[in-house]
Amino acid sequence: MEKAIIVLILQLFYVTILTLRTTFMVRNKCKVSAVCGFLEAGIYISGLTLVLKGERNIYSMIAYAVGFGIGICVGGFVEQKIGIGNIAITVNMRNKNEKLINHLREMDFHVTIFEGMGVDGKRYKFDILTTRHKEEELIELIKFYEPNAFVISFEPRKYKARTSLKLK
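^ that's the sequence the OP posted. Answer follows.
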């Protein structure tokens, strides 16, 4: 049973690191991804060796599979908490809402405002680029000032920013 617990713990670490490595690769962070890959391979070999060497007991095999499943959840949770990367938010609304604009800028959000014409009259579009870990805060702020705003959030793959604009 002790072996099964070790296998479970190894799998939790293995899959969490695998998730982070994949995330770093997608975001072109190759050096960090390579370090994660090195750790991932070492843990994988250790865990698999424990499961396959000697007598193959069902508890170790189940622990391997359960650890893999739980590791996916843990990896996703960790990735969400560290919020790697940036997001772009597009807000579409009927009113310009100067209070919202001022509050966003006071909170260090960089907002670009566009005025356009929709089917039912003037519309305002805000473009905001920020770090992922500020996404929920930003959306809640928009909902507070403009509950009927249409909000789209997406991850930009590539962008070029002014050198004076540093996203934290």
